[in-house]
């Protein structure tokens, strides 16, 4: 829930800007189409086509970057489509403007803000997500090879003895009592005989200290 709230706070303002700017640009395109003979539902359809073309082209540019598709620069087809949609949107906005510098600026603001919002969303979607750092996992008995201890045969390696000693110390610190053979065997996933050998080494070292 917290992660969703953080993501909403991060992306929400950009989405709100995109909706408001898109609505303003949509209105200008619809009015321009209506004034030039495209009445009724046709004026709405033209406005939808222009705005959705910009969104679709931006998403296609982002998909090209993710897949590593060649020709993703300014000459790519999605980029040309995006430029064409922006030009049409700006032309419709300027057509509705009052014949003055501020009239053109204010009329072009929705189209410019819509383009900025779409580019921001495209940029965030294309940004590589950081890979989670792998958690430090203590060595397991399988990673610690056994080495010969004496003429009686192979015994536990010094690394395994050291790891078992750390496990025993952690157990004593948490529970206030020495670890048992069964607890050590369950923690390390070793046989009863190996757990007994390790426990003997641990106790011998502790007594010597």
From TrEMBL:
<keyword id="KW-0812">Transmembrane</keyword>
<feature type="transmembrane region" description="Helical">
    <location>
        <begin position="12"/>
        <end position="29"/>
    </location>
</feature>
<feature type="region of interest" description="Disordered">
    <location>
        <begin position="127"/>
        <end position="160"/>
    </location>
</feature>
<dbReference type="Pfam" id="PF10935">
    <property type="entry name" value="DUF2637"/>
</dbReference>
<keyword id="KW-0472">Membrane</keyword>
<feature type="transmembrane region" description="Helical">
    <location>
        <begin position="41"/>
        <end position="58"/>
    </location>
</feature>
<dbReference type="InterPro" id="IPR021235">
    <property type="entry name" value="DUF2637"/>
</dbReference>
<feature type="transmembrane region" description="Helical">
    <location>
        <begin position="101"/>
        <end position="121"/>
    </location>
</feature>
<feature type="transmembrane region" description="Helical">
    <location>
        <begin position="74"/>
        <end position="95"/>
    </location>
</feature>
<protein>
    <recommendedName>
        <fullName>DUF2637 domain-containing protein</fullName>
    </recommendedName>
</protein>
<keyword id="KW-1133">Transmembrane helix</keyword>
